[in-house]
Amino acid sequence: MKAGENFDIADNDNILKINSPRDHVGGPFSVVYKSLNARWAIVALAWDGQPMLGLRYFWGTAGNPCGTWATSTWLVIPPEITLPILNGLPLAPGYRNKLEKFLNKEIPGEELKT
Questions:
Q1: Contact, 54 vs 33, CB < 8 A?
Q2: CA angle, residues 52, 39, 82, in degrees to nearest 5
């Protein structure tokens, strides 16, 4: 899948279909935050079974990052900077609470979808 400048990021379901590299990504489960104007999104996903956040930009032909053959992938955000990033986002308190429980392995990613 090429998720670049022509990719519809207004629809969260489109963003959640990006699941590469498949050997490592579980989910993505939820769009945490996105910027339609700057064309980037942060998602909650599992990386090698561990709850994480992923980031990608939707520019150019395939967006960034992209893997072999211009396949759209996720840049995994290191756990050490996850909370500072979340602190800078205007998230609804209820969703923020669920997201922190996911990241602390207290709830599965599927619960973020509800």
A1: no
A2: 25
Which among 28, 43, 40 has a CA at the least distance from the CA of 3? 40
In the chain, how many H helices and how many E strands? 3, 4
Render pLDDT for 44-97 as a digit per residue (tens, 0 to 9): 999 999 999 999 999 988 888 887 777 788 999 999 999 999 999 999 999 999
Residue 65 CA to residue 52 CA, distance in Å, equals: 16
The pTM of the whole model exceeds 0.90: yes
DSSP secondary structure letter of residue 2: -
Element (H, E) at 34: strand 25-35
